[in-house]
Amino acid sequence: MKAKVQVVIESEHGQLIVHDVATITRTTFSTGTLGLSLSEGKNLLQHLQASIVNQQVSEWLRDTRDCPICGSPRSLKGHHSLVCQTVFGKVQLDSPRLRHCPCEKADHRSFSPLSKRLSERTTPELAYLEAKWASLMSYGLTVDILSEVLPLEGQINTTSIRRQVERVADRVEQAMGPEKGIYLEGMERDWGKLPRPEEPITVGIDGGFVRGRDGKSRGEGHFEVIAGKSIAENDSKCFAYVTRYDEKPKRRLYEVLKSQGMQMNQQVTFLSDGAENVRTLQYDLNPHAEYILDWFHITMRLTVMRQMAKGLPGEEDPKATEKALDHLKRIKWYLWHGNVYRALQAVEDLTWHLDCLEPGEAQAKLFKTVEDFERYIHSNQTNITNYGYRYRNGERISTGFVESTINQVVSKRFVKKQQMRWTERGAHLLLQVRTKVLNDQLRDTFEGWYPEMKEAA
Q1: pTM for the model
Q2: Hey, CA dihedral for 211, 216, 218, 224, is it positive or negative?
């Protein structure tokens, strides 16, 4: 069997143009010869794409040859080649250079209409695919998978993929409004007139670390990434940024909340680990916001101190460990019920108990940890609530859902399996594309930039 594939193009003037695209030959019949092979399909698409693109360019150039003022044909100065990257392979185009008509007012004597029209040499759909897959896997694997299923062998590489991600992220960043100190909208007297809001929005924020490119060893050169998740009634969205690079962290979080329909009369609950850079991030975004110190981080610190207390020597006081554990139990109970005053008193009792013990390595380490814990509670005392009451009423008290977000947004792409070292800028820009993909917003973003993508879908 021999099958010829042709493309028949009908011009706007009704002329039929036929191009031979491929010839498929089959001499045997089996599962392996059934239909088109992957290589044949890629070859077919590449030749079909080239035929259609060249005809599009030819007709457009013919329509733009004449002067728009007097209608006289512009004279030809020369030709040069122009390469355009498409989903189905590179297409080399003939780009004529025309002289301006004497009746045209121009800064230059000649111009290339095709170069001016195709200012971007990568089609939107290819840019979308490159950015999407590069945010989900390494640049090398992105090159491999796109080259495997599309006719792009030898046409893309890790550098071009990385630059494409950065271009997309830069465009997303430029579209974001300027940073402000306060994001409260309207007047307080008007907030009560707003429609009744939906269920409260819960926002969890936490941090992680990414290995920096400038580190000289595995223990050096890490920088912090803040990531979080906002959960509305029927929607959840994540966000992330590099703390030392991002200049619009509060704007970033505000845009996420607005995309979920946040109103000024809607309750928003922020859960965080109490770090200084996180505390300042969540303020002045909503007048009905509630700020809660994450119970998980409190219990994590208490658990560490319990383990350290079990190592206290008992020569001088056989009940040293038992007393320390009892103090820690009281501290936890007071904090669980939101009694910060009594909790700090119990912490002070514990420090007195440790101070009376015989000095030693275990005692010194626990004493320092308890002092750090006291400062931690004191700094975040306004954000400590009655966790027991919230828990019994089915309200969130912990950022456990954010731990999974850190793993999904940061660890899977930057830390665990990808042994790359990152610049702060490179990591930040990739995070913006990755969160767009995880929030299922990247396609909508591209369709906003290129409406033709929505029409062709």
Answers
A1: 0.86
A2: negative
